[in-house]
Specification:
Layout: H1 6-20, H2 25-29, E1 42-49, E2 55-61, H3 71-85, E3 91-96, H4 109-116
């Protein structure tokens, strides 16, 4: 037996799916629809019951750079999407981490593939 609570695993999966429907505005600006999970901007997602019984979700997010102006957009969007797919969640808290360490290495393979579409091939040396 793995000890993983199936209900908790299902909730985590739904939360990450909801977050990934939020697309990075910078990617949209260049015609690429890349979700914030695929961009590597969602560092962690946790859910716990408060003493009063409320279900609280905490998201640890970063941006691709320290001066990103889209943090309000991300917060509003993840709250809306989580509410849509997980109505049992009472509160969503967003904690912002240090964005200076973001790199393409944090992206999923799918995210990197979407960004590569339409890019010219690297020159052969």
């Amino acid at each position: 037996m793995s000890g993983v609570d199936p209900a908790a695993a299902d909730l985590r999966s739904r939360l990450l799916t909801a977050c990934n429907t939020v697309h990075d505005p910078c990617g949209l600006g260049v015609g690429r629809r890349v979700g914030i999970v695929d961009m590597g901007l969602v560092r962690d997602v946790r859910a716990h019951r408060e003493p009063d019984g409320r279900l609280r979700v905490t998201l640890d997010l970063i941006t691709t750079g320290p001066f990103c102006m889209y943090t309000p957009f991300f917060e509003q969007s993840v709250r809306r999407e989580i509410g849509r797919v997980a109505p049992e969640v009472d509160d969503v808290e967003v904690e912002w981490g240090d964005s200076t360490g973001w790199s393409e290495a944090l992206m999923t393979e799918h995210g990197r593939a979407v960004l590569r579409i339409g890019r010219p091939a690297a020159p052969v040396r």
